[in-house]
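Annual report, structural modelling task.

Input specification for the 2'-deoxycytidine-5'-monophosphate complex:
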Amino acid sequence: MKNNHIITIDGPSASGKGSLAKALAKELSFILLDSGLLYRAYSYCFEQSHNHSAAKSLFLNLRINSIDHEMHVFENNTDITSILRHENIAKSASQLSSLKETRDNLISFQRDLASDNGLVADGRDMGSVVFPNANLKFFLDAAPEVRAKRRHLELQKRGQEVNIHDLINDIVERDKKDRTRELSPLIKTEDSILLDSTNLDQESILDEALQHIKERNIL
Ligand code: DC
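The model returned the following structure:
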């Protein structure tokens, strides 16, 4: 059965968007768009070229695959996803994402991922700019300290040791940049549903999201 529904999940970093998006994509058998990973991949390409048109060509030569409901990025058959998850790439992605050239180079690529298989799109501007007509929009938030702790655990699991206080400062700084930039700032659109994960675990947030999805007959 065709299902071209689009569900967007926007919110600040480490709010749990990634986990919720992955769980929803799995539950609904939808394609997952992890737009942050695309911004990270673009930054990786930009670091090699320092030029937007060359970065775009390099980016288009990467291969994007879905593995176990997660997006993975391959360069010449090597999976570079874990490299893209490093904090230094997150920082350069945050800086580059405020530039028009970067956003213009990524927007149609993101829209093209919408298909007859349904899409869960995770990012900062999914509901506001990339998919303004999405069937359902969520805005996921949590207190900065809680997000920093989660990011700390996540990085530890990947073997990256980062000071928690530095992480809180980085998260607050990056949020400010993402929320106040001129182009596609991180905002909660009026038609989106706020989910606050400060005191809720992943399962409870997933249940809440599924409840809204059922109410809208998206299943
Ligand atoms: O979600 P993430 O941490 O992987 O995102 C990396 C950076 O990319 C983040 O600092 C902001 C930027 N980004 C963006 O500007 N718009 C999006 N839709 C997704 C990410």
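The pocket of 2'-deoxycytidine-5'-monophosphate is lined by residues 13, 35-37, 39-40, 90, 93-94, 97, 123-125, 174, 178 (CB under 6 Å).
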